[in-house]
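In the previous chapter we treated chains in isolation. Here, by contrast, the input contains two separate entities that must be folded as one system, with a combined length of 636 residues.
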Amino acid sequence: MTSTDTAPASKGLAVEVHGIVKHYGATKALDGVDLQVRQGTVLGVLGPNGAGKTTLVRVLSTLIKPDAGSATVAGYDVLRQPKQLRRAIGLTGQYASVDELLSGYENLYLIGRLLDLPRKQAKARATELLERFSLTEAAGRPARTYSGGMRRRLDLAASMIGRPRVLYLDEPTTGLDPRTRNEVWHEVQGMVADGATVLLTTQYMEEAEQLADELTVIDRGRVIASGGIAQLKAKVGGQTLQVRPGRADQLPEMVRCLTEAGVPGAAADPSEGLLSVPVTGEEQLTAVVGVLGTRGFAIASIDTRLPSLDEVFLAITGRRSTPDPADRAVAESRPGHGSQDEDQDGHRNKNQAESKNEKEYAA
Amino acid sequence: MSAAVAGPLAAPAARDEARISPAAHLRHIGALTRRNLMRIKADPESMFDALLMPIIFTVLFVYVFGGALSGSQHGYIQYLVPGLLGQTGINLAMAVGTGLNTDFSSGVMDRFRTLPIGRASVLIAKLVAETCRGLVSFVILIGFAMLLGLEVKTGPLEVVAAVALSLVFGSSMVWVSMLLGMSLRSAQAVQGVAMLVIMPLQFGSSTFASPSTMPGWLQAFTKVNPLSALADACRSLFNGGPLAHPVLMVLAWSIGITVVTAPLAVARFRKRT
């Protein structure tokens, strides 16, 4: 082996991806993706179902080989040094990859042993992580009896056993209820505080804002925007103010008054009975409320929210993030596609479609 | 950079991270075998086939066909039961692929495939656990048949040899089964194809009836069928009789099947997503 085998990540980058391409037949799951993750930071990869997020994670965790392009993780080449790379990474997928029949403890102990920890240390590490992820009480129970959130936490714990330098979290909170989602976020923040570099894929702007330092937005296998959260938000107009009027029939009049008062972008949503106004700062927020107040409109409730993924997409690409009907038809024709996981690169579903195209890892 | 993540246990031996030592391979296979055995413990129902199949087959065939085939149940039990070792073995072996196919849909395989372990380890561990299952099944088969009147006319060593030979052949069929399990899409398909493989091999053999009454073309098939050889070898090991030819044939088949299918199975394991 050459000295490059143990070369540290260059320029403080934990993940470097250049022009990664992965096609499945006519479907371009990844169509030339470039991205970088600095050490000790969290990169959020934001994109709708089928954007290629999972395929990207699978390429970076040596589960599939790209058709073109190169990538290094923790200084190791994805194609040439898969074995070394595997020692440096942890993966938590969209679907909890724990053994349902084994207890939480046994799941973690097994992975410790497979990572070459001596028995004693594997035991200690499993116990420590169960404690940390609040699973001590459930440690002896089979994982199939766990709730969704506990399973996800066990999955996170499993990916932490080897103290990975780079963690991939592939839609870690998809399908979780808000409380459980908060628990998972809390754990991820803890991992980041411990110094892990994280590549997080998500469909939720809110999740990206909570966890990520930087964002890369991908769509149909391409990067369509990247940068800091603030930059991206500036691009898409920051927050949206939502006003529920006391009388829904006043909506059009409210829009007219705001427009006259020089507030741009006010729009009525009669079906929801809501007035929405994009706001970029406090002054604008005050102005909107001021205008409505002085004109004597009754306000039932007022709320601000972050732009949804859909709105981000609309702002960046000028079209909605939902796949067009043709894409959807393709996704749904795949065998084993459930209604809930129609992610076209969701790993569970593309087993068959992909396996023929995948080159073998000579690992 | 990993200072904060690295606690008292630093990453083991960074000298040559790509190499997995033979000892490490053994440890990995051991840990995975332990997992497989614990899965059986956690789901005892998964042992039903291994426990009940030999009993059901013995009862069915001895009492349904025994009288007709060899004039007496007692005579038939001596003929049938040694052959049932191979029959049970191949049935258990072919079920492995279905399980493996299901494993792949659970995400656990993804976890294993992102760990720095040898690619064959997961499959070898599966094979070891299945061999244990087979052993339990064979012990039950022989014990139960002895209750029904099976006599060992040779000695305990020969019985052990018959069990060992059946396990060797069963192992080679486990590779076939794992290859099928990873090549076909659904667990149902695996089961279907496994049946297609099993049925002609089982019944076109000397396991249940002597091939002497079969038509010529079928006799020709039974002559090359490894299950015939295994049944003949086991019968000789229980009742005395010619050994060298059937034993060599079983070993040749087992080695041949393993040499061809094991590397293919490992390759599929790497490629399967």
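Residues 178-193 of chain A form the longest helix (16 residues). The first strand of chain A starts at residue 13 and ends at 24. Compare these points with the single-chain example from earlier in the chapter.
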